[in-house]
Amino acid sequence: MGELTAAETVRAADRIIHGVGSRWMLSRRTAEHGKEQGYGNPFAYYFAGRGGVLGDVDADVVAAALGWFEPGFVRPQWEEGVAVAGAREATRRYALGCAAWGESHLPDDPRLCELAERVARAAEGSGLPLFCGWRAEPLPDGFRARLMQLVQVLRELRGGLHLVATTSVGLSPLEAILTQDGPDTARFFGWQGDLPDCAALRPRRAEAEEITDRLSAAVYERALSPSERAEFAERMGAVGAAVLR
After folding, report:
1. What are 205-236's pLDDT values in tens digits?
2. What is the DSSP letter of 179?
3. Contact criterion met (CB below 8 Å) for 2 and 234
4. How many angstroms separate the CA atoms of 67 and 88, rounded?
5. For the whole model, what pTM was predicted?
6. According to the model, what pLDDT value does residue 245 have?
7. What distance separates the 2 farthest-apart alpha carbons in the chain?
8. Residue 244 three-state SS
9. What is the rounded distance in angstroms from the CA atom of residue 120 to the CA atom of residue 218?
10. Exposed, middle or buried by CB within 10 Å (0-12, 13-18, 19+), for 177?
């Protein structure tokens, strides 16, 4: 199986973690699960479920923790979602949807669960409230469901580190989106009106990506040995092959 450096592990695993997490959150089955749980609006289910780990807070707190969404877009979705059953219950129900999706799509891999949990536990949580909230949630017993929730936790880790990095180089959330993904993605995240030309800020985005990778690599360095990092990347690659093909 060989060995991997921490930086190589970032390149091998982090994109898969992000992609698998996005796939379950954006899936039709997840929206259907939300409807079964009382959330007719999938955006309300998403914001209340994902952000509910923060507790009974104002929508601006949720927008700050998530980072990329236009705050005026977050508020009505969050308020509609928490009105169903509260913030913490929304997360509990959202985690059930996460588990159900994992049971249907992920391999039964106890070893990957073990490695992923070690990575999550090794991360320093300062400045990462959403990650810390999800890390504190109880894990399911079944390994497929457990792995999916751990993927969600690690996705929040990478996302939180990236928000720290973009902020540190002076990019606003909108600028961060426009320097990488463009106006269509910005519209999806709720930004309306005339959008600025951020081409001149692309070097800052590249710097932020480098910072994010470095911060993520430091976690892998603490959590896993070189051979364990290679194993983690290989097993996560199998998850990506199953889900993202």
Report:
1. 999 999 999 999 999 999 999 999 999 999 99
2. T
3. no
4. 20
5. 0.96
6. 79
7. 51
8. coil
9. 12
10. buried
